[in-house]
Amino acid sequence: MRIPRACLLLLGGCVLAIAGCKEDEDIRVNTVSHPDRQAIRLRAGVIKRDNLLWVFLIKGPKNEVAKNLDTFNELVRSVKFLEKKDDNGRPFEVAEWTNPPKNWRKDPPGEMRYAAYRIDAEPKEIEMTVSRLSAGDDWLLTNVNRWRKQVNLPPVAKDADLQAPEVVHEKEIAWVDLTGLGVHIVSKPPDPQAQSKKPQFPAQGKRPKVQPKAGGKKVPFQYDVPKGWEKGELTGQFMVERYVVDKDVQVTLTPLGGGDLAGNINRWRKEIGLPLVDKKVADDSAAVLKIAGVQSYYVDIDNPARSSRILGAIVPLDDAIWVVKMWGPSNRVGENKNGFETFVKSFKLDGR
Amino acid sequence: MEQTATKQPTGSTANPTVAATNGSVNGAAAHPAPHANQQNIVWRCLEVLADLRITVALFALAMLIVFWGTLAQQDFGVWTIVNRYFRSFLVWVPLRVVLFNTIELKDNPFDVPFPGGWLIGSVMVVNLIAAHIMRFKFTWSRGGIILIHAGILIMMISEVITGVYAIEGQLVVQIGMTSNSVIHPGSAEFAVTRHVGVKDDEQITVPRRLLASGAVIDDPRLPFVMKISQYMVNCELRKAAPGDIDHDAKGHARVFVAVEKPEVSGVDPNQKHDIPAMYADLFDRNGKKLGKYLFCASRDEQWIKLKDADGKETDYQVVLRFKETQRDFSIHLDDFKHDVFPGTNTPRDFHSYIRLTDEKEGIVDRKAEIYMNAPMTYKGETFYQSQWTTDPLTGKANGTVLQVVRNPGWAMPYIACLVVGLGMLWHFGITLQRFVDRRIMR
After folding, report:
1. What is the pLDDT of residue A212?
2. SS (H, E, C) chain B
3. A18–B164: do the CB atoms touch at under 8 Å?
4. Can you give the pTM of this predicted structure?
5. Dihedral sign, CA of A61, A64, A69, A75?
6. In chain A, positions 192-251, which contact chain B (CB-CB < 8 Å)?
7. Fewest Cβ atoms closer than 10 Å to its Cβ: which of A23, A219, A282, A330?
8. Is the peptide bond before A329 cis (omega within 30 degrees of 0)?
9. Residue B295 pairs with which residues in a beta bridge?
10. Nearest residue of A to residue B89 by CA position?
């Protein structure tokens, strides 16, 4: 019995037809729908204090924001700054303001927020936040354009396009009021337990003590150097070890006399061109892990726009905070991340 | 592959034999000479097409194209090679690749034309079908061979269907937001958008095939004319020094300089995507130059304000981006959970909690969870948990990336393997039976 020829020929023809029927793309005009987009109003009051910006911001559906505008304006105008001192005697500023109405429910502080309120609204509550940001060059224009982008408005080119500041009780408030299109998102309330769950960076005197080694040995650890890492010349004043992973990536061991977790993280963020962040945000960005049996901190900071990345491990010992750092182009550091993690996990304190 | 079941007579004496064995052509023998001659020609053509030597040559060509295609991935991305070498009818293979990358040639002197995967495959299909018409008779003892060939044929058809109809992309959505847009990082497009309503935008897209250095895009549907001075398949952006900025530069061209980079190689350990970019001069409809713009897929939209014929000003968002396609349903991300093993950055669980809405089908806010090894399938597309997005300020997960895959021919390789397996069982079973029978006879 033969398979009918016509069937076989038809089959062959079908295969060739399928291969030839790919659609050729051309210029197209489409209507693209954004199901959850709506008219969004964003109003901010920005007060500059030295190098810090205090940003009071309310954002949400246009009508809901309008209902709460007077309360918001009154709250921002009532802000007073008080100077306090931290445990080390260093001065810092706190802000206070008149209490808002009861339907403004206060959130615990968290993330980037110094304070936040949730305001009853339909269908979803709206938020009013108070944040502290570092004031760079063109601080107002930069922030205004960031907010304009959030509500789908074109950027403005110069400060002259912005509203003149209002002076209230010797403080200048730069008001920004934008209405555009966007999606109303309500953030999750911060977990008030989150801070207490994370081990605090230990203060000096509460860190593991290490006996000084005879013979002037500087590094109190023993470790396994991954294959292929070459010992390099020291290029920094305090650096005690340097390894060249490849021509673009290097690893250093440096003891620091002081500083805290957030200080180091922000220093690294600055090195790779990222904006500085609040202490809490910086602390939260670090994972906690044991290195040489000591509670240590580990961060991975990447700036894809500049292709710069830093992996940093911070081991707080009594006499010094040991910083192990890998840096280089984002992709090259990524390729060597496993090696770096194996390296820091191999650390053992001398004599233990 | 065995194809010598029945040796057919050749030449003009072939027809009577066929006529005797195939009822469908019985009448042909009785027709006068012109019809018989036509049949003769068809028969001779089939005879040539079914030649076993062609089969052997095709296998050799297929091996070469697979080998060269693999070697060429040193210089180009996987999908570039797949489309150029395997899903094409003709490929120009660089001399260096022809020589199996054994000789380092600085400037490739010339390319060698070679049949592409689809041409080789198509001829193989024709050769196989012709061989069945010419030589194979369906008998129980040959049933296994026919099944094996049928399985191979199904496998080849499945590749054609995959090549033509399969799509792959990513649906990126942040917590609390809704998306119906799938991004295809393998291809780029230029998009011009204007808001036409609170929820709707009008979007004009120029496909990648029209974007090339020196191309002029002058289409009445676009609000401007675009002259592309340089198109880069892959680029790296660096901050522009004052001397880098042209006097008529606008937008990103005043801040960045795009440096052309080689296409991301198929053997690149990071397997990143190419970042396309282009420099283009834009002119309004009166011929007035709007400026020199830099468009790069890694940067945001730029805004251009233009007056229409009535003098009314309209803001347009323009961007070079990865190709996007819209779905008639939307996915809302309620939450995303990203757990790691304690004390490490090793992922333990990614979990997207979504709501699906498809008003056409009467589905509103249907809840679903997508997590590792638990994809969701809807309207022929499968959504896999792939990656997540992070807030650049806090470094925390703020959204999900779902891999979207559609392949109408997904089941065919499985069917093909099953058919080939059955064919092999059949064929070797009969051979075994013959062997056992012979042993018993002895």
Report:
1. 56
2. CCCCCCCCCCHHHHHHHHHHHCHHHHHHHHCCHHHHHHHHHHHHHHHHHCCHHHHHHHHHHHHHHHHHHHHHCCCCCHHHHHHHHHCCCEEEEEHHHHCCCCCCCCCCCCEEEEECHHHHHHHHHHHHHHHHHHCCCCCHHHHHHHHHHHHHHHHHHHHHHHHHHCEEEEEEEECCCEEEEEEEEEEEEEEEEEECCCCEEEEEEEEHHHCCCCCEECCCCCCCEEEEEEEECCEEEEECCHHHCCCCEEHHHHCEEEEECCCCCCCCCCCCCCCCEEEEEEECCCCCEEEEEEEECCCCCEEEEEECCCCCEEEEEEEEEEEEEEEEEEEEEEEEEEEECCCCCCEEEEEEEEEEEEHHHCEEEEEEEEECCECEEECCEEEEEEEEEECCCCCCEEEEEEEEEECCCCCHHHHHHHHHHHHHHHHHHHHHHHHHHHHHHC
3. yes
4. 0.69
5. negative
6. none
7. A23
8. no
9. B278
10. A19
Compute how many other C-beta atoms are within 10 angstroms of the C-beta atom of residue A157.
9
By C-alpha distance, the chain B residue nearest A276 is B393
Strands B225-232 and B235-239: unpaired
Find chain A residues with C-beta within 8 A of B300's C-beta. Answer: 149
Q: Mean pLDDT: which of A108-112, A137-141, B416-420 is highest? A: B416-420
- Is residue B433 within 8 Å of residue B427, measured between CB atoms? no
Among A12, A21, A9, A23, which residue's Cα sits nearest to residue B156?
A12
CA distances from B112 to B65, B90, B93, B266 (A): 12, 10, 5, 21
Which residues 110-169 of B have a C-beta within 8 angstroms of A? 118, 122, 125-126, 129, 132-133, 136-139, 146, 153, 156-157, 160-161, 163-164
β B289-296/B249-250 pair status: parallel
Helix (H) or strand (E) holding A331: helix A330-335
Tokens of B365: 């806010």
**Please, which residues bridge with residue B115 across strands?**
B90
Q: Cβ contact (<8 Å) for B198 and A39?
A: yes
Does ipTM come in above 0.95?
no
- The structure tokens listed for A233 are 């010349």
Half-sphere exposure of residue A66, counting CA atoms within 13 Å on the CB side?
A: 6
In whole angstroms, what is the distance from residue B398 CA to residue B390 CA? 5
Q: What is the DSSP pairing of strand A113-119 with strand A104-107?
A: antiparallel
User: Under a CB-based contact definition with an 8 Å cutoff, are residues A132 and A52 in contact?
Assistant: yes
| Chain A residues near residue B201 by CB distance under 8 angstroms | 31-32, 34
Taking an 8 Å cut-off on Cβ atoms, the answer to whether A334 and B270 are in contact is yes
| A203-207 CB contacts, 8 Å cutoff, 24+ apart | A204/A258, A204/A318, A205/A318, A207/A294, A207/A316, A207/A317, A207/A318
A140, two tokens? 């107002």
Taking only the tens place, the pLDDT of each residue in B82-103 is 989 999 999 999 998 998 888 7
pLDDT tens digits for B315-363? 999 999 999 999 999 999 999 988 776 655 667 788 999 999 999 999 9
Residue type, B287: G
Token pair 């150097």 in the structure block, residue: A225
- In total, chain A counts a number of residues equal to 352
Backbone angles phi, psi at B25, to 5 degrees: -110, 10
